[in-house]
Amino acid sequence: MTAVLRRALVRHAVITVVVLLVAVVSIASGVALFARQDAHRTAEHTARQVGAVVDAAVARHDLSAAVDPATRGDLDAVLRPFLTSGILTRAKIWAPRDGVARIVYSDEPRVEGETAPYGPQTIDELDADGSLVQEVPDDAEHRFEVEHTRALLEVFTTSRDARGGETWLELYLRVDEAGAVRAAVVPVVAVTVAGLLLLAVLTVPVSVSVARRADRERAEQRAARDYGLAAAETARREIAQRLHDGVLPDLASVGLLLEVARDDGGEGGSAVLGQAHALVEDEMRRLRGLLDDLVPPTVAAGGLVGALEQLAAQLGPITVEATPVGPLPDDLELALYRVGHELMRNAVLHASATTVRVTLESTPDGWVALTVADDGTGFDVGMARADGHVGLLLVRGVLADRGGRLELTSTPGRGTTAVARVPVVRPAVRVRDRVRAPA
Question: What is the pTM of this model?
Fold first, then answer.
């Protein structure tokens, strides 16, 4: 299994897991909420049906005070079938008066006579649709139902007694809310997971194909960049060759002729010819400098450190320090030379630095670090990235091809430190159709 295929499969698996988690959590939350709401609706519907039966018995009795044995017997007879069948676990009848509700009847006689305050909100909720559904709280009022609180819902409905006074019928219904949620969630989640897993399996070839295509594109970009660098190098060498074979010999000949003219001419002519000779010599010096700039020294000849020192001597006040880094691959030395050349050139020409320090060292983890620090004008690193500085972009590109990176630290007015870090061993890249660089 290739590295590209392995990365594609790992990425595909991670995406699949993330999508599964998001889908399962979202769907399960929605279905669970719906299941809870459905359980409440079912409890309310059942309570309304029971309440319709109990209302007839309530309407036959005066419930403004404690119930007498006859009233109790009638109410017990009506509620007993619902209690024994398990439809209800508790029943209470409240008589609300002036903000205080009192229990006038319950199948649990020990709570009869207890009172509880109520507010306008309770009345509004009951008046809205004639019922109120809520979970059974764990408090003293519900001390005889506390062992069932997690499985109970209490439903309030309103009715009228024989005197026309308002009464509240409180019914406790056993509701397996967790079971309802589980029964609703499990099938939906199972179908969702199965569908997403099937989709993930079917899209594996697509992910692998996309990863391979992206890898080929990256390889082609690297090859194209190498081609461009090689082409530029060839162009420089051709220009240097033309200057060496044509311009310099011609200028040298002119210099010799001017010397002869100076020796043969008068005093005035000699002065003019001497000045011309000086100008020609200056031009030759400039052209030789151009030659040195167009054709960089061979890194392999004096090593990377020697090439950097020679470059530093040409550019200006630059100090090169190096610790033993061991033998480096030729392409790595050339890449570091190009990076160092661009960074030192920026420091001298653009940053107006008076002192530049270049450090080359190796790290224990198998990387090489080339540091160029100057005392120049400095700049805003964020602004430089946004502006797309061409030289820095090329440096980052060269380092990225080798699996390295560029770290910039700079403050306007306080200089710049650029650290190029690159591994000694180049990451393996398979390229099917590599662009050939010119020789």
Answer: 0.39
